[in-house]
Every structure is written in structure tokens, then in C-alpha cells.
Amino acid sequence: MKDVDFLTANGIDVDHSLEILGDMDMYNETLNDFVDESKDRIPKIEEYKNNGDMANYSILVHAMKSDSKYLGFTILADLSYKHELASKENNIEFVNNNYEILINEANRIIDIIEQYLSL
Question: From 45, 61, 88, 109, which residue has the greatest number of CB atoms within 10 Å?
């Protein structure tokens, strides 16, 4: 049994996710999927930001927001939502000024999940 307290101590709302996913096996599998998808998604988010492609940027941060809400990553969900709104308004200045905060939190979550899955 993996140590759920490790996730909780790192700000992940596991209880919320279990209400949706039902059991730890499904949760762990979904966490693994999130890590795999994020490793593809984050470079694309950066590429769209750098190219000023706010339409595609908003699609990817929306997906990250949805996954984050689903998996109990409250901070990442909130940051992703702010980026989604800003990119839909073509607010490139907000996206550029707050991008590092978003990606740092995404990478923090990925690191936590990888540590958790290796326990």
C-alpha cells in the first residue's frame, strides 16, 4: 500500500479524487497517466506560449486544469484556470509573467507523484 499521507502532506486532496475514482488502484493508475501526459503537454504549452499561440495554449492549460481538479491538485488546478482565462482573453502579458509559477507547480506535482509511485 502506497503512503497516501505523503500525497496529503504535499497538498494533494486524495479524498476528493477517491470520491470520483472510487479506489486507490484507479487513482494510482490515473496518476501515472497524468505524469506521462504532462511530459508531452508541458513542452507543448511552452512552445505555444513562446509562439504567442493563445488558442492552443488555452486548450492545453484547460486540460491540465481539468486533470488537476480530478486528481486533487488544488493549487495547480487554480493556476491552470487563471492561465486558461488569461489565454482566452489573449492576455499574453499575464501568461508570460506567470508562466514560471504554473510550470514550477506542475513540475512539483510530477515530482511528488513520481516519488509516491516509487514508494
Answer: 61
